[in-house]
Design a protein that fits this description.
Bound molecules: farnesyl diphosphate, magnesium ion
Shape: globular
Number of strands: 2
Oligomer: single chain
Low-confidence stretches: none
Length: 335
Amino acid sequence: MSNLHINTYEAALNQARLQTYNLLEIADREICDIASRAPGKLKERFEAVIFPKGKRIRSILLFLFAKSGTAPIDEIKTARCAASIELLHLASLIHDDVIDLSETRRGKKTAHTRWGNHMAVLVGDYILAKSLSLIVKNENNRVTAIISNTAGELVAGEVLEIDNQGNLFLTVDEYNQIIYGKTASLIEAAAEIGAIQAGHSQEKIELIKDIGRLFGMAFQIVDDLLDFEFGAEEVGKKSFTDIGNNVMTLPVILFLEKSSESERSEFKDLTLNNLTENSISRITSLFLEKNIFSECRSIALAYLTQAKANLSLLEDSPSRKLLIDICSAMSYRCN
Ligand code: FPP
Ligand code: MG
């Protein structure tokens, strides 16, 4: 991936951050405040996992959709929604890193690498609990229900992924169900909650919710691609983790669909033991031969094109423009 492409994505997010700066600040303060009130040693562990901050793409989308209407929004409540979503996301990542045995996240040692699995699971549990008690403060049952249901979707997606590790017959439909659960559901929730905060009609809320889902599906496919091709310096996590863990990502599924019996069995042998530089390079060339990465990109692009088509149905606003830019930049990200 060229620097130009990284910069395009970062630039789009930075523009959106500028536009939503106040809300991001309020949400950050809320998160820091909750961490500072954690009892005993939980406080230092909580504070350790909130830095460095992630890209906060879910918050940014929530805020842009919240600002896509005409009425003024309740800034405190809107920021609280985003803080709750970021905490839920953080809790799920801490647990995910335990499951994936990942050693780095956001360029830093993961929680379980620092404190062991037991403590990492408990820190994640505490953060999940705080995400839920925070959203209750808004006294909006609809939004509380979205966040708690989405917590269930994340778990269900992750369980389905684990149950299918190494399942060489997993279909694209089943894969879509997994990535909807583990990733797109939370981005969809962020978009829907933003639309609710904006006071949009139910019809608009459904449209915006769908934009979140479409963007979320593309987001995970790009994440699958990044695991293969790019990695460490940009995303702060090790590459080839998915394939090393026998996770059935889109490139793997498409490759297996297009393979002969002998190619399948070569792939199986290559991924049976710990990956080496040689096995990684062989897998990469097998995938390149079959145009797998381009095909994955095309699928991600189709989601993003549909997301932009839905965005074009919203009233013109600075937020809508930024949302379109983020979708376009996401397309470049997997170029
Ligand atoms: C990352 O996928 C995984 C998620 C975003 C969801 C993980 C969900 C759970 C562990 C369920 C537990 C949930 C709660 C509510 C505590 P990935 O491994 O493909 O991405 P990565 O490359 O960033 O690790
Ligand atoms: Mg992971």
